[in-house]
Amino acid sequence: MVNQKYLDKAEVLIEALPYIQRFNRKVIVVKYGGSAMVDEQLKRDVIKDVVLLKLVGFKPIIVHGGGKEISRWVGKVGKEAKFVNGLRVTDDETMEIAEMVLGKVNKELVTLVQSLGVKAVGISGKDGGLLKVNKKLSGGQDIGYVGDVKTVNPKILYDLLEKDFLPIVCPIGLGDDFATYNINADDAACAIACSMKAEKLAFLTDIEGVYRNPDDPSSLISELFVKDAKNLIENGNVGGGMIPKLQNCIDAIEEGVSRVHILDGRIPHCLLLEIFTNKGIGTAILRKGEGKYYHEDE
Amino acid sequence: MVNQKYLDKAEVLIEALPYIQRFNRKVIVVKYGGSAMVDEQLKRDVIKDVVLLKLVGFKPIIVHGGGKEISRWVGKVGKEAKFVNGLRVTDDETMEIAEMVLGKVNKELVTLVQSLGVKAVGISGKDGGLLKVNKKLSGGQDIGYVGDVKTVNPKILYDLLEKDFLPIVCPIGLGDDFATYNINADDAACAIACSMKAEKLAFLTDIEGVYRNPDDPSSLISELFVKDAKNLIENGNVGGGMIPKLQNCIDAIEEGVSRVHILDGRIPHCLLLEIFTNKGIGTAILRKGEGKYYHEDE
Amino acid sequence: MVNQKYLDKAEVLIEALPYIQRFNRKVIVVKYGGSAMVDEQLKRDVIKDVVLLKLVGFKPIIVHGGGKEISRWVGKVGKEAKFVNGLRVTDDETMEIAEMVLGKVNKELVTLVQSLGVKAVGISGKDGGLLKVNKKLSGGQDIGYVGDVKTVNPKILYDLLEKDFLPIVCPIGLGDDFATYNINADDAACAIACSMKAEKLAFLTDIEGVYRNPDDPSSLISELFVKDAKNLIENGNVGGGMIPKLQNCIDAIEEGVSRVHILDGRIPHCLLLEIFTNKGIGTAILRKGEGKYYHEDE
Amino acid sequence: MVNQKYLDKAEVLIEALPYIQRFNRKVIVVKYGGSAMVDEQLKRDVIKDVVLLKLVGFKPIIVHGGGKEISRWVGKVGKEAKFVNGLRVTDDETMEIAEMVLGKVNKELVTLVQSLGVKAVGISGKDGGLLKVNKKLSGGQDIGYVGDVKTVNPKILYDLLEKDFLPIVCPIGLGDDFATYNINADDAACAIACSMKAEKLAFLTDIEGVYRNPDDPSSLISELFVKDAKNLIENGNVGGGMIPKLQNCIDAIEEGVSRVHILDGRIPHCLLLEIFTNKGIGTAILRKGEGKYYHEDE
Amino acid sequence: MVNQKYLDKAEVLIEALPYIQRFNRKVIVVKYGGSAMVDEQLKRDVIKDVVLLKLVGFKPIIVHGGGKEISRWVGKVGKEAKFVNGLRVTDDETMEIAEMVLGKVNKELVTLVQSLGVKAVGISGKDGGLLKVNKKLSGGQDIGYVGDVKTVNPKILYDLLEKDFLPIVCPIGLGDDFATYNINADDAACAIACSMKAEKLAFLTDIEGVYRNPDDPSSLISELFVKDAKNLIENGNVGGGMIPKLQNCIDAIEEGVSRVHILDGRIPHCLLLEIFTNKGIGTAILRKGEGKYYHEDE
Amino acid sequence: MVNQKYLDKAEVLIEALPYIQRFNRKVIVVKYGGSAMVDEQLKRDVIKDVVLLKLVGFKPIIVHGGGKEISRWVGKVGKEAKFVNGLRVTDDETMEIAEMVLGKVNKELVTLVQSLGVKAVGISGKDGGLLKVNKKLSGGQDIGYVGDVKTVNPKILYDLLEKDFLPIVCPIGLGDDFATYNINADDAACAIACSMKAEKLAFLTDIEGVYRNPDDPSSLISELFVKDAKNLIENGNVGGGMIPKLQNCIDAIEEGVSRVHILDGRIPHCLLLEIFTNKGIGTAILRKGEGKYYHEDE
């Protein structure tokens, strides 16, 4: 007789049915960064999740950062990393190093995906004119080659998806002067998700989610309406680092992304758990009037 | 913290990765019959399995029988079912009833699939000229409208698959005289799988698989090469009912089907277990020189 | 010298030119029922007509009934057919028989079409989710599995037409509860024609057409504007059986079908005569302000 | 009641069924010339036939001549037409006139087709590089711009057919020196039919067909195998004008055209009669071993 | 070492880059007539220019006249050409000759293009129903088969461009009565450019361009806004022949053509010079508020 | 009047006609390296040439190296570059730096192309599984992550070309172990050209071409047959650095590339001069029996 272990496995697969169906051929943008990028085991877990999403018929796109690795290489050539208001001061040489390091990280992810049997193509925001930027100031101060996304031309992403590749994007863009600019990876992921009206935008972070009270771990919010998210910011209930992230979530929903998730990248397979089980992970930002999808009666 | 149960679920999904990848866009013909068709719970299990295969990117086709239900309705109109050498003697009226009953079963399966959110289309071998038959004799004796598949025109199946429907086929065909003939469902499934060079042909049966010694339950064969299958038949090691089934398996492999499985339809989710786990179920019939796929080094 | 008979034949073909041109690639829904379904010769005539329409470039769809045959089989299993206000009371078993019988009729038509060299595919309203229904009451009374069409999803029909098949539809649908419901064939044909904005909807009936005075055979109406059709109903000038049929005609025109015809299915090749000659058959229901097409000056 | 006249009409249409089916989407090249081009009524008849063929799904191509009209215009400008061995001596000015006249005839045919509601495009062998020629000598003598077809590039014809136009071709070609050459219309039609492996090539002529004995009107041959056609030529049983025509027929069959017809263009609708009725008109040239198609058992 | 001559050549090609890019896949209608049609060397220059435009990715269409050649042939058959208000009185025979001559000119251009290695197809406004006309009166007087363009059906042009042919159009059209009408070539070119919203419409003429003062050669206008063009006409600053041409330019811009050029066809390669260099040739008619394109900052 | 300078420009464009035509839609692989990569002006010249090739309808692909820049960065992090038999000893860290530097160079080229108005996409041999490698030994010695191309999967290149992007490839590949390997850029370009049966493969080098006698500058070879190239190698007539390059040329021709060029990248616009003028630059390697293309009589 077949033992229970196998039957249980079958049950898990069967439970995945409605989710596989719901996201069939939908674009899912995954901002990949933080611990999940440093820990080798977590890295494999995340990439395996994305590969699975691809194989079961979704259209995932990875946007990755690389901050810590950039700092390491800046140091390696004997420079000191400088920050103003949390933004890296990016002179010519720093920009050159940043582009190289992000390129290297990009190809590592491509390699990892390919080793799992899915064809990936790694590009930067320069390729196919994907990301055009404006120079970003920090408190009115010029901090070098740091850019705000000005326009997104997602043609190259649609083309790669049509040809069945998994696109992996590093957050570099071109200015009108064709100079190279560094872009915050959260911003890049958000802009891309908006331009494609993605079904989902998921941020892999190093926090559990959004708290109603940052000092109270039990106040983690499962579902947050856009209006409430705005209130949290206005009322000063969220800490500094969380504000731009939450703002990205709000922007994405208002630009047509169906759902945004702040996930804890330190949990193995947090992406799969979020998508395939009825156990919500982290915080979901929703349009007003919608309940979380796995509570919906469709 | 996320509890272990959810992490285990994620692991099962991740384990499915290589199988999802292996059978991506491959045609899998499932002969569905026996207990799995009578027991309502098993029926739902089988159909859920097939729906999952569809959703994760495979191209399943169901070929079903309906023998017991036919007998029930033959009785209902006051006729007595007659068999010669295990083949139903099929006069005009019996054929009429058989076609009606198989049509009803066909639409029940369509309904079940649709209720799980996948679009199905139920056809018989008449539709689109799918199955052309010759009259089949039983020991030289005319037993009426019983047919052997003569040609398969799989265009309608390719068309339905292209349009993303799940085809469900009942084993009725047309003679050159455009008369209606009943076809053994195993034979129909085998002929269809051969004409499409299917990746897999799976027979859901009421037995555990093929035994080296029919009297010894411990002699179940996991993997059987075509050559050995032929020997089993020649040496008289398999019982009567098994011979035509085994012959179908041999034919299918020799006509280009990659792998044929005799599965125990009484095990819930036997199809998923066979395809998605490294626990082989039933007997796999293989081309000479190949090990079972999950032992292969690819 | 070529004799006159042949020259006359050529003339008939040449006369067909403008009609062939007018309906090129247009969808024509034919409700097939009544005597034309019982008389074997008339049946062949109707099917030959539809096959010709297909071959000269039209896109015909057959929707058929099967009332008399259903009653025959209900009797065969020892049940008594029951009607309320002309609607069959349809309990579980009756529904089961009705679906079986309609399925059998469906495949007979498929066979007949195929024998004339055109590929047909027979489906029910369950296939591809074609017909969704609400339960229909009869004077407030529950009469079982009798349905009103709620929504039509014509994708399967467009797909089959694109792949060059002739679709043949039997009027069975699914409720929201995925139960099987019987649908009046006139209603099903009308709903399908509306959903596809068909060029023509033709009802093959056992009457000559609509009469201005039901008691006066000479008062047959050739052309009837929607407004006048409504008056006929309101003024009580049409008998009971005709009211729902006329209402279907009115609905179809108002939903975008270009022309609806009530034809006498007892006249051999009535469909061809209607479409290919300047002899109007039966009654045409028209949009206000249009003359009958073969009087139009285009 | 519907009177017999209409029922007879329906019967004629129904009889056309198998032929419509047989030639569906097949290329049929019609060489149009002789009396059928001079008599206005016959002209309309021929063009109506071709338009009907187009509308019922065939892919007709007209190749036309214009000999008499050329002679008329040559005279009009005060030149004398000169012939050597039946071939027009074609100096610069004659060639110029010939091209103009053929162009005019071409557009007249285009106009006639368009007035019947089908889109036509008139081209010469220059357009799209359709016909390349070698200079043709007459008994070793240079007779000017008279060409033999050297190569056919049927791309423009396939493109026009794909775009649903009816192509009308006048027999003018280019030499390797890009000079303009006149081509015999029979030769041009034959070369085009061969290059497209047309289903049919039909020559509209001013004779009833091929005779076994030119002096005996009762010896008209209905079906002629290629081998027998060769014998007729070798044994001197056919007169001078018929030899090149018969040779074209033989070439066409040997190059892959399925059937060639020599039709009497003086019979109204001879094309329709040949294709749509079981009354063969004129002489059919066949591949050895085939009976005429309407005697075949398919 | 490579000498300067070759390096200069490379520079010219490089300078062409932005123009090649700007007009990539854009439709450019060239009205070809006047001296450039009579002088053999200028003719080759114009056709080479158009062929180059085709090869570097533009979609040129030639519309040609043939007035002088028509007069020559009218004379040749002993008729006298008659004009009323500058419009040719076009009786039956004149129309016949005009169509023949334009057809001949058309095929000469086809031949020239083909000799340069590009596939051309020559059509008249009859082909594919391209040009439908109304009879045009001259001061209220019937001058025969002279037509005003009533409608353009550009399908045949789009089809030929899609299939990579260069279309060459002669200005003949059909009336509602299917009679043949002569059309002014400027009018035909303008109507075609409008119907396709062409990027450019260029008139090759025998003048240098539009003058602010027709008596002062130094008053040639390089760029002319639509409003100013209207003023020139209203104020009587342009001579008789120029008025309809200027009106065509105004119409074209107002119907959506991006830019219209009046070029001096007597300058070799005037088309290339206009398109590929920053030396404007002739007069450009522009939409209000736009500077000439090579002064734009894009 | 238009001055001579402009007419000369037009002439140059017209001269380019036959070459534009010859290479329309053909794949041209350009190995870009050496001085042309260091000198900023030469770099712009090369990229402008490639952009022009793209715009006039060719399908260029750039494969670039980056040796000098790699050495500079290896030095920057305080490592010493080590070479064995001219091959860089490539340990883990060197490979990491090499990949980063090549990635940076890649995106600089992408930026330059985009600034000229053409969409480019920069990839490495990892993307889409383009280049799979075997470890390469140097005289039997392991020199680290240096690879020989084992297989090319050009799908990603065909996909990018189809979507109208200009692909720019850096010579990095994956081993079977999914480790990163450096590939000689000449080898990568050659392998890619072979896998796509490119029309042309052009090596931009720092030499004028191949000499019959390396010591005699006047012995530069314009055209070299494969057989003669082999003789040069066997007879020791070519120096060390030239041998592998010449071997690549020989391999390419034998694998189906139509023509290979060794060009002097120090000459501005050497690519354009080679392709668009009848002044051959450098050395062309040809298949036996062919003269250089611009001497051919086609």
TrEMBL record, chains A, B, C, D, E, F:
Residue sites binding substrate per the record: G66, G67, R88, N182
Molecular function in Gene Ontology: acetylglutamate kinase activity; ATP binding
One GO term of the biological process aspect: L-arginine biosynthetic process via ornithine
Segments forming domain Aspartate/glutamate/uridylate kinase: 26-264
SUPFAM superfamilies linked to this entry: Carbamate kinase-like
Described function: Catalyzes the ATP-dependent phosphorylation of N-acetyl-L-glutamate.
Record's protein name: Acetylglutamate kinase
Organism: Blautia pseudococcoides
